[in-house]
Design brief:
The chain is of the alpha/beta class and 315 residues long. 50% of the residues lie in helices and 12% in strands. Helix 1 (47-76) runs parallel beside helix 4 and helix 2 runs parallel beside helix 5.
Length: 315
């Protein structure tokens, strides 16, 4: 909350100066291109529950995939005699792959929605790449059965083996998470963004590989549509790296502003209103003449509130 004190300097109009102790003001968008549309990501509910449901569905698909492999092996060994052997086995391998890959993609998606700790390095790798591990179980046994089958002629054995090996490679590669995230990584990213702008809010475009804290970052120069969400929303979409240009430029601007304010006024204190993106060094600035309520705080608090521009009348 904030403490309210009367501004004794003003003689024209009495104003209320609110000294900011905890920044709970809603950040205004600054420097936003008017032609660019911001799309807010809707909250889809509890992340752990969403991740849990995806993991359960992934496991069901993996079980179905392995069941297809089992049927293929049963046909190879003549335990069942449905249809011709080679077409049946190839069909079983194709269905195996068709169930397996979506299961692995769901598993990877769940791990980005609700990442686990990386304290146990081996466990972290195995958990994130469980699909790759299971791909061996889903395809290697049938490859062994094909190679050791004495009823298949050389040509049929080669065809089925090639299909199964390609399926194994496709399943293993598509299941591997080349960019696994941990709960520690997500927490650190959230803390950094909150420390910079005062809230957990970032932006990205459809083709973005990085998230941004500035909706008008030059990286969006060709983007007509920019998405707004939390750091966790960006991580869910496999956007896990911050735009250093955004964060560093904001940090540099904040540092410069603090130095300038301190040099001119002798203290780190500025004033701003709820609207706009400007901060002021003088609570009696003419730009604040019609404001009944102004906020007082440090440059850091002003920047967190989205007030990142110096008043032109005071320059």
């Amino acid at each position: 909350m904030a403490k309210e004190t009367k501004n004794s300097k003003s003689t024209k109009k009495e104003k209320t100066i609110v000294k900011v102790e905890h920044n709970d003001e809603k950040k205004e968008k600054y420097g936003l291109d008017e032609n660019r549309r911001i799309v807010k990501i809707e909250d889809k509910g509890d992340r752990k529950e969403r991740a849990k449901s995806k993991r359960i569905f992934a496991i069901v698909l993996w079980v179905l995939a392995i069941a297809c492999e089992v049927f293929g092996i049963l046909r190879l060994t003549d335990k069942i005699t449905w249809l011709d052997k080679v077409p049946f086995v190839i069909g079983a391998i194709v269905l195996d792959l068709a169930f397996f890959i979506p299961g692995s993609l769901l598993w990877k998606k769940a791990n980005h929605i609700d990442p686990i700790s990386e304290k146990n390095k081996v466990g972290f790798w195995c958990w994130n790449n469980l699909g790759t591990i299971l791909s061996v179980l889903a395809f290697l046994p049938i490859i062994i059965f094909v190679l050791t089958n004495k009823d298949l002629d050389k040509k049929d054995k080669s065809i089925v083996t090639i299909v199964a090996v390609v399926a194994l490679l496709a399943a293993g590669i598509s299941s591997y998470d080349f960019n696994p995230v941990s709960s520690e990584q997500l927490n650190d990213a959230q803390k950094e963004v909150i420390a910079k702008i005062g809230e957990d809010k970032v932006y990205w475009a459809k083709t973005s590989k990085k998230y941004h804290v500035d909706p008008d970052c030059p990286a969006f120069s060709r983007s007509e549509e920019v998405y707004e969400g939390t750091v966790a929303d960006a991580y869910e979409r496999n956007i896990t790296d911050p735009c250093r240009r955004c964060i560093d430029s904001l940090e540099d601007a904040e540092k410069h502003a603090k130095e300038e304010v301190t040099e001119k006024t002798g203290e780190n204190k500025v004033y701003w209103t709820e609207k706009g993106t400007t901060y002021h060094m003088d609570p009696d600035c003419s730009a604040l003449a019609n404001s009944d309520k102004i906020y007082e705080g440090t440059v850091e608090e002003a920047f967190k509130a989205g007030k990142v521009a110096e008043c032109k009348k005071e320059q």
